[in-house]
Amino acid sequence: MKTFRIGGVHPPENKLSEKQAIEVLPLPEVATIPLSQHLGVPAVPVVKKGDSVKTGQLIAKGEAFISANIHSSVTGTVTKIDDVVDTSGYRKKAIIIKVEEDQWEEGIDTSDNIIKECNLSPEEIVEKVNEKGIVGMGGATFPSHVKLQVPKGKKADFLLINGVECEPCLTSDHRLMLEKAEQMMVGISIQMRALRVEEAIIGIENNKPDAIKHLRKLAENYKGVSVEPLKIKYPQGAEKQLIKALVNREVPSGKLPIEVGCVVHNVGTSLAVYEAVQKNKPLIDRVVTVTGKDLKKPSNFMVRIGTPALQLIDAAGGLPPNTGKVVNGGPMMGKALNDLESPIAKGTSGIIVFSDDESERVPMQNCIRCAKCISVCPMGLEPFFLGLISDKQRYEECEGNHIMDCMECGSCQYVCPSGRPLLDQVRIGKLNVGKMIRERG
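-> structure tokens emitted (441 positions)
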């Protein structure tokens, strides 16, 4: 069974919502739509207070190369443009809309009809993906139109589709592969056309046999598309690890996947590309897993962007009285929410409710030099050492020891018997090294 070579862990999967079909969540009363839902420069508003907007209308433009357009996910009136606390815990600009009866922007196809044939040129596909604000929906939120433009002098050999969903608890991608598979396959074919590649491989961990079987059957009708089962190992959904597992190529330090002839997109992104190109629909909603061991009804919801996280929790049975922490994302890489009114964004894959007991960290003790953190690091780094020098603010040394290669997967902190906050320390180090790099120009 294929997998990546270095490191990795296998935490308890806790896929409590994997059998729950996707439900459409009712519209919020107020939608709070952040201007920065993507990697890169925040979008610039093209509406103002008092403006009426329709569902799917452009409300903020991504003017930089690495940026993304933002569209209204609802119909209503712009009440203000203000700073709000987003799911990362930072205050960022957002457009706030009082929601009215749903009216879609003209030209968007909201029917369930599947349109398979695409005659657009690669350049036209890229432009449509750019126009509709599509970003990577696996969490990184890198603007998709940038990935679909192969730099001069480079060549894409493979389109790799990430259906791994290796984070514990999350099931949104699994449900998409079961319920929106045909649309996803068309989206994959469209991306192959844009990249001018002849082979696409969908990687799925073998804890999803129903998705593997379903997509393999569909792939018979799509030239060049295959499905590859993978050994269960976290963080196999990371780009570099997925590339190693599927095509046995290694991305050099500091380089992008295109350096080894690969472009990686998530299954959710493939669906969004289909909807953008074939349906003229912007990225205004997504599937979000809401789960937790004490939650009454772990679920997968189709949610409009800008919906408050609390509305999803209420739909899943409400906040349990013993709640200790609510996390945006998966338990390994996610971050705790400090405001349950924080809005769902393009990169929100899950909301996890943890009890008081689950939220407590083990008491921190001295490092015992067991080297477990080194053995599980998928990037071949030395997390105990990076944590130490980051704590001592030796940031030049952090950079020299490749701290920027860390993907913040949390495997090191997960296995540490001494309860060392290795991920926290490395994140602080990365922030400061990144600042140093930017200041150098």
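The chain has three domains: 27-99+284-357, 122-279, 372-440.
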